[in-house]
Amino acid sequence: MYISKNFLSESIDALKNKKISLIEYINLLCDRIDKTDPFVKALLPENNRRERLIKEAEELKKTFPDINKRPPLFGIPIGVKDIFRVDGFETSAGSKLPSKLFKGAESSVVTTLKKAGALILGKTVTTEFAYFEPGPTCNPHNINHTPGGSSSGSAAVVACGYTPLALGTQTIGSITRPASFCGVYGFKPSYSRIATDGVIPFSESADHVGFFTQDLEGIKITASLLCNNWRNNILISEKLPVIGVASEKYLEQADDEVRNFFEKNLELLEKTGFKIIRVDVFEDIEKLNITHKKMTAADFYNVHKIWFAQYENLYRESTRKLILEGKEVSAETFYNAREER
Q1: CA distance 10 to 24
Q2: Which entry of 41, 81, 114, 123 is annotated as an active-site residue?
Q3: What's this model's pTM, rounded to 2 decimal places?
Q4: pLDDT by residue (tens digit) across 248-299?
């Protein structure tokens, strides 16, 4: 088990109020990486990571000498899923294709976090092009288990405490699934709420940028920086919320083990005082699944068709199959699927 606590809100407070020096904090995180990442494999390898981070930290301190004028994420090293473009880092998207194909302007999300004082801890492992073919990352709770995908490395680096914040993306379940598997908080906003430029697309019709933390307060801090039209003055009710559960055909997609676990958790919530209402909201789930698959496959083909024509032999099998499936989706089918989102 390679789990360590590293709450974003607490790290911000510790650095701001000099409970720990920035250099000491970076060394602590790098020691943790050196000790455990040979087993978890959540980060892409980087020579001299510690030296680079210390140099960047010293430059950051010079830029913001006044403690009271330091930006909100001052000195926080962040993990970045390897489909985001980051200045100074190559992008491979978990693939064997030449990284030169993916060059371009830095993701505005990354730039925003840098302006907020964040440092780049490094690139995190992703499944190939954020689809199904896995990378080397293991689950930090048990290295014989999957961390979930496609944002596997980002969820794992947060669970391991290498960083209190990591960026991920979701097209189908690529934030919610690894967050669940690795036992951290995942934030998947509404579509287009966080900018997706500078990210190698999976499906522009369904891609979301989000992130992982170990604390809810850290979610709020980061969302306020990244979400369009974020409001901090939302009134919070003292009453327990009613919990809606999508049931019937939707829930029947899960196997017995998952459903039994889910039902036990619902029972615990009811005993705590929550009201549970079951709603058959996705009675046409089979049709929705097919429509979604065709839409995302068509998008995926459009992203990859030029690269695929030249480098088909470098693609792994699941990725290759989705590209060929997307090639067969008609323009009319794709248009109708977009209309049904």
Answers
A1: 15
A2: 81
A3: 0.96
A4: 999 999 999 999 999 999 999 999 999 999 999 998 999 999 999 999 999 9
Tally of CB atoms within 10 A around 136: 12
Note the Cα 210 to chain centre separation in Å: 5
- Nearest-Å Rg of the Cα atoms of the chain is 21
Instruction: Give residues with Cβ within 8 angstroms of 328, minimum separation 6.
Output: none
Place of tokens 């995180």: 29
Residue of 11, 151, 152, 174 marked active site: 174
**CA-CA distance, 84 to 242, in Å (whole number)?**
37
Give the separation between CA 122 and CA 47, rounded to whole angstroms. Answer: 11
**Known catalytic membership, residue 99:** no
* Element holding 117 (H helix, E strand): none
Q: What DSSP string describes 144-213?
A: TS---SSSHHHHHHHHTTS-S-EEEEESSSTTHHHHHHHTSEEE--STTSS--TTB--S-TTT-EEEEEE
CA distance 166 to 84: 12
Is 150 noted as a catalytic residue in this protein? yes
Please pick, among 11, 95, 107, 150, the residue that the annotation labels catalytic: 150
Pairing of strands 208-213, 185-187: antiparallel
Tell whether the model's pLDDT for residue 233 goes beyond 80: no
Q: How far apart are CA 222 and CA 307, in angstroms?
A: 34
| Distant-in-sequence, close-in-space partners of 62: CB < 8 Å, separation ≥ 6 | none
Place of tokens 């997706």: 196
When pLDDT is averaged across residues 191-209 and rounded to a whole number, the result is 98
Task: Give catalytic status of residue 81 as yes or no.
Answer: yes
Q: Which of 80, 75, 68 is nearest to 14 (CA)?
A: 75
